[in-house]
Amino acid sequence: MTVRSVLKHPEFESKPHGAAWDIWVKFGCKLAANGALMRTAVLGAPFFWDEKQVIKQTLQATKVTHADPRCCVSSIIVTNLISRLLKGNTQDILPDLDDGTKEEILRWMQSGNPDNQGLNIDSEDPPHVINAYSTDENIASKRSNLHKYLMRHNDQSKQKSREIAQIPDNSPPGIDKFGADPVILKFTRSVVERYKFIANSILVGPDELDYLSNFKVDAGEKALLEYCFPESLEALKLDESSTIGYVYKCLGSALYCFTRKLNQQPSESEAFKTIITELILEAG
Predict the structure, then answer these.
(1) What is d(CA 44, CA 62) in angstroms, rounded to the nearest whole number?
(2) Cβ(262)–Cβ(272) under 8 Å?
(3) Hey, which residues does 260 pair with through a beta bridge?
């Protein structure tokens, strides 16, 4: 719903961040879905040695469709976990970011906000890239086909009711028994702590905070930490139909699985199979 709504916005082609921001506000600042989190994980690889470049590219790609700060911080956490894995410094506990860097990141977060017309990080690609995109003769027909597909898929999805999961009689043993890998857990927590300040940046006025009540006012670092480090997968209630696509649930389930003692099991492949199976079953 979030992606489709933004793509259909009349200004998406020229101002994607502005379109995403407008849709977010029009839906009461409640759209904190997980689409951008899944889409941007790959951005932990390019320029993995440059933290600010990873963050900037992550925000550029996230904010094309998802303006909510919860979506932004979730994407940044994942891409920076990946970049640090590539650098091989999982045992390095980094200090807090300096104030200047934090201010720059928060400024990037405002891209698309109509009150900040001077900031537009979604158009910082080289001009020839933008021109090549906008003058492609096939773009119009491709978008038309995409729109027809989305409308057809939307009509079909309305006719289908969600299937009830069939839990096997002999389900695999719970991954809770694996326990948390202390090194990976500490590494993950340090990355979350490094960027949790983003979760405290409510990008709407104080009079609009009531709009965030859709997810029990999950704004601020407390909610972020609770979802990132749940006691179990079950605690995340991944099969709750009204919030199954909530970005913090997607993030929290990923981090919980990531921090299990996978390499201390008799077979890593069987352990991974157990983890991914239980994750699927928890989500219904």
Answers:
(1) 13
(2) yes
(3) 180
Count the neighbouring beta carbons within 10 Å of the beta carbon of residue 107.
Answer: 12
Give pLDDT < 50 ranges for the chain: 126-135, 204-216
Provide the H-helix boundaries in 63-123. 69-87, 99-109
Measured in degrees and rounded to the nearest 5, phi and psi for residue 172 equal -65, 155
Q: Please report, for the chain, the start and end positions of each structural domain, with discontinuous segments joined by +.
A: 17-120+178-282
Residue type, 68: D
Asked if residues 2 and 33 have their Cβ atoms less than 8 Å apart, the reply is: yes
Contact predicate 121/56, CB 8 Å: yes
Q: What does the DSSP 8-state code read for residue 66? A: -
CB atoms within 10 A of CB 82: 17
Q: What are 118-148's pLDDT values in tens digits?
A: 566 655 553 344 343 444 555 566 566 666 7
> According to the model, what pLDDT value does residue 157 have?
61
Q: Which of 271, 79, 49, 94 is nearest to 179 (CA)?
A: 271
Q: Which residues contact 79 (CB under 8 A, 6 or more apart)?
A: 40, 41, 43, 44, 54, 55, 57, 58
**Which candidate, 192, 31, 55, 68, places its Cα nearest to that of 121?**
55
Residue 251, CB half-sphere, CA atoms under 13 Å: how many?
Answer: 31
CA quadruple 38, 42, 197, 26: dihedral positive or negative? negative
